[in-house]
Each structure stands twice: as C-alpha cells, then as structure tokens.
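Both lines are quoted verbatim for reference:

——
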Amino acid sequence: MRSDPADYELVAPGSLQAVVSLLATQPGEWLPIAGGTDIMVQYAAGKLVARKLVSLWNLPELRRFEVFPGELSIGAGCTYTDLREHEVVAREFPLLVSAARWTGGIANQNRGTLGGNIVNASPAADSLPALLVYEAELALVSAGGERRVRYVDFHSGYKTTLLAPGELIRAVCLARRFRGYFSYARKVGARSAQAIAKVAMAGLGRMAGGVVEDVRIAVGSVAPVPLRLRETERSVRGQVNDAALVSHAREAAAREIRPIDDIRSKAAYRSAVVGNLVAEFLYRLRGDQGSPQSAVLVRWNQLPADEAAQELQACCGSSAWARELALRRPFPTEAPLRVASDEIWSHLGTEDWMEAFSKHPRIGERKSPAAASAQSRAWSAEEQRDAAAAGRRSSGPCGKPIKNTKQGLAGCLSYVLPGNRPRKSWRFSAGACGMTT
C-alpha cells in the first residue's frame, strides 16, 4: 500500500545550524533527508516508518567543494552530478567519478548525494569502495560541535554506522596525494546502469621496477559492509608483479570476503568475480592489457576436469554444459572456447535450461511461500517451461533476450574465466548472468 502524504511532516529549516538544533532539541523524532532517492522508495512502498522529515536539500554548508593545497573537502549534500562535473574530482579522484556514473540514471544522479550514499550504508553502494581506497575522512557535525572519523571505521555492521544521535555528515575529506597512482574501477551488475552491484571494486596502485610499491583494494557487495582488502594488499605490496603473485592475490582476496546468496547473485559467483577483478587489476597495474585472458585460460586448461567444470558452474548453472566444455579443453584462445560453448548449449535439453534457471534468481524473484495456491504454482511452472522453450531459440542462459548465439553462455566466461572486459557484442547475455561493461 502506498503511503499517505497526510501522515508525514516535512520541514526545511534552511541552514545547517537550524537543522542540528532541531535534531538536538527533539532527539529521535526527525529523520534527515537529502536527495531522497532511497527514502522515496520506502515511501512509495508504504514502508517509511519515520513520520517527521527534515530536509537537508541545497543547504549551502553541505553543497560545496573546498579545495585546499593538501585536501579536497566535498560537502555531504553534493550530488553525483556535482562529482562528475568537478574539475579536481575528475583529475585527482577518478574512481569517484566512475562511481557517480554508475549510480542510477541521470535523475538519480541529479538528486542522490554522496553523504546520503554513505549514511544509507548499503554494502552494495557504488561510491563506498572508492572512498575506502582514497582513505577518506568524514567531518561529522552536531549541535555539540564537529569531529572527524576515518571512513574505514564508519560502518559498524550491516546498515549501522558510528553516527551519534543528532549527528550528520557535513563533508567527505580526501587527501590530495594519489595523482601518481594507477586507478581501477569495475562494477559487475545485471545491466550497465541502473542496477545494484553484484560486485564492485576500486583499486589504486603504483609500480617501481616491476615491484608493487603500493596498492589499495576495496570491494562492495561481498560482505555486510564495504571492505578494504588489507590482507591481500599486504601480500602484494613489495612483491614482483608476476603470474605467481596474481594467483596468490586471487586466493587471498577470496579468503577476505564474506559473500552471500541473494536475489541478485550467488556467493560462489561473487567469489569467482572478485578473484578475477583482483587479477585484472594487477595485470593492468603493470601495463599488461592482454595477459589476464591468456594467464587465466592457461590455468583453467590445467585444472582437473571436475574443478574446471565447477568454476564454470559458478556463472552458468548448467552442469551438463560445464562438464562438456571442460572435456573439450585445452583451448588456445577464447575464440574457439566461445564457439564450443555455443555449440554445446544449442544441443542441450529443457532439463539443462531449467537447471540454469533454478540456480540464477532474477531481480525481483522470491521463492514461492509454502502457502502459495495450487493455481499460482501451476502458473509459475508454466512460465518456467515457456521461458526455457523460448530460451533455446532466442535467449541467454539466465532467460534474457540475446541477438544471436554468439551472445550466449560463453559471455559468462568473460568474468568467471578470463576476468577481462566483456566484448560489447556480449552485453545482453553477460548482463543477464551478472556482468556489465
């Protein structure tokens, strides 16, 4: 049921001091609202519990950039569009610009704020890995004054933070010391835009004489809070950036994360993708654009058949397809691998398609409750059968439309095996299986 506007009160005091004074005099009664992109979703669904809202929108104290010789201060009320258009952010903090581009559509970017993204505290939020690798600090303000906290300490648990009652984020503070670093950003989601991340990663690195001089890696959507991969960083820093180091970093990253199965993805898939993104980052850090594909493919070619098939299943779900493709190894390059993938899939039956469907929940899908009516269950089964039959003619492995067979199941290999950027011709099928360019 939609909310009734008459049940809510919204005030706009017009200054930061007036807002914090209101929060102090009536503690716990008012919910601060900035751009409203998350709050309005709850409101539209009739699930917004708070009834008294205080607007932070366009407060001048929160909507400004302050550039100092050693620091950039970004007001918590600055929008994603503000971030994209600011010269210093674009030049010195490109990971934030990438995150701003990923966040929703243009309307969301015009309204959504950096401070709101932080306080909402979703582990899948787009901007948070970038803030971790830039080692941001937060300026928190209340009627009692102002304090600074390290952003890495801000999230105390799932959807919980260090904000005290009556406290707001005034600014996000970034040290201006990363201009000589290589930057890497990647979001893996169901679509290229307007999709919640299955995995997001931000990386900064610097090489000297073939050795990783410094590295910072952060990931989102793989734990209750956004994570800085400290152990992985320590294992890489000061080491020669070669294939052995990449393999070690991949394993270290998998040990640090805590992914779950949910409606967007599976834990095994997220683990595989994180490992491949870390590998891709390290290869690109050393300036090698081609090696991630060949090195990972060589490793997969050498695995025992059962292990090779298991790695494929993390993406594509069909055990028959995975086993058959593993038995056709070795593949010298991706091209014959993709041809073999399409050929195998075209000969599989309805049972294999149903297996793939069952292992990949789609956005909005929930398990049927035990009390579902017989007619409802019948409709659901009929839809699944129809989708599988249609899928053999015109869709990718997760039931999404594709243009031709080359956009089929092999698109998944772009992340689960090679870990490299998907070709644009794979975008539909790759997106259906949880990847994006």
Remarks:
- The domain at 188-289 is CATH 3.30.390.50 (Enolase-like; domain 1).
- Residues 63 and 78 are 5 Å apart (CA to CA).
